[in-house]
Amino acid sequence: MARRVEVTGAGGLPLTAWEYADESAPAVGPESQAALRPAVLLLHGLMGRASQWAGTARRLAGGHRVVALDQRGHGRSAKPEGPYTREAYVADAAAVIEQLGLAPATVVGHSMGALTACQLAARRPSLVRAVALCDMRAAAPGEASRRRWEEWFGAWPLPFASLDAVRRWFGEDDPWLEGARPARGRFFAEAMEERADGWRPEFEARHMLRSREPWINDAHWDELARVSCPALVVRGWDGELGRAEAQEMVRVLPRGSYAEIPDAGHLVPWDQPEAWYTAVEAFLADVAEVPV
């Protein structure tokens, strides 16, 4: 069961979050039993949306108060022309934790969402109990990355005739893809909406490119070193985060730990959900033993 919650992000921006609970649990509210459980905030990556965390959220909801956020420019949240800065994304996450009374929360992020989790923990440590960073790179991708992304967005055969066409293109036909990735096709299908001429992304490509801009030439090693809470680094064998870089991230993090998931690409939680759940649940169990 998921309940839609409207919150206010940086600059008064309307944001939508979703709070998950067991079907058998009491209704979610400030006085409910669920509100007293340790909190988990789930942050999707670039081009994602909160609903893609449904499997993880339902898995964790039995023992935690779980909230997934549609970040600015994504999902049901507002899609302004800007700002799409790191400061804005971090301030949005902080606002959600404060407005919903989640602190100190374990913040679980994928890719861009993991970077937001890391920066939030470094800048607002009182709000964060622990972080799980899934396939986030600490090194800067560089200028070539900007050009690849611009070319990739330009190659999308928009509009798609159907959701099956979306799943097929992103899971099989995308020329930037190496090998079939059915989970990738399903992931992008969930971020599409039907319009008069067919299926198009619910986000704007220009907003996504602006969101990437702040980290194209910036590395994040210094901020990792300032994350004082427990931190889990998760990578898939075939993801964007290489093993050497991941292990260096764990070394730099003051309280870092590490999990590797075989047969997973960048979309680790969706390529291998059971292995992902196992890693996150073990981490949360360890965090539960650490005094706040």
Describe the protein in words:
The protein is of the alpha/beta class and 292 residues long. 37% of the residues lie in helices and 20% in strands. It has eleven helices and ten strands. The protein has helices at 54-60, 86-99, 112-123, 143-155, 163-173, 182-189, 205-212, 221-225, 243-252, 268-271, 273-288, and strands at residues 2-8, 14-20, 39-43, 65-70, 105-110, 128-134, 192-195, 198-201, 231-236, 256-261. An eight-stranded mixed sheet has the order 1-2-4-3-5-6-9-10, with helices on both faces. The chain has a two-stranded antiparallel sheet with strand order 7-8. α1 (54-60) links the parallel β3 and β4. α2 (86-99) crosses α3 (112-123) and α5 (163-173) runs antiparallel to α6 (182-189). The radius of gyration is 18 Å and the shape is globular. The model has no long low-confidence stretch (mean pLDDT 95).
Write a concise keyword list for the protein shown above.
8-stranded mixed β-sheet; 292 residues; 11 helices; alpha/beta; 20% strand; 37% helix; two-stranded antiparallel ribbon; globular
Set out the fold topology.
Elements: E1 2-8, E2 14-20, E3 39-43, H1 54-60, E4 65-70, H2 86-99, E5 105-110, H3 112-123, E6 128-134, H4 143-155, H5 163-173, H6 182-189, E7 192-195, E8 198-201, H7 205-212, H8 221-225, E9 231-236, H9 243-252, E10 256-261, H10 268-271, H11 273-288
Parallel strand pairs: 3-4, 3-5, 5-6, 6-9, 9-10
Antiparallel strand pairs: 1-2, 2-4, 7-8
Helix pairs in contact: 2-3, 5-6
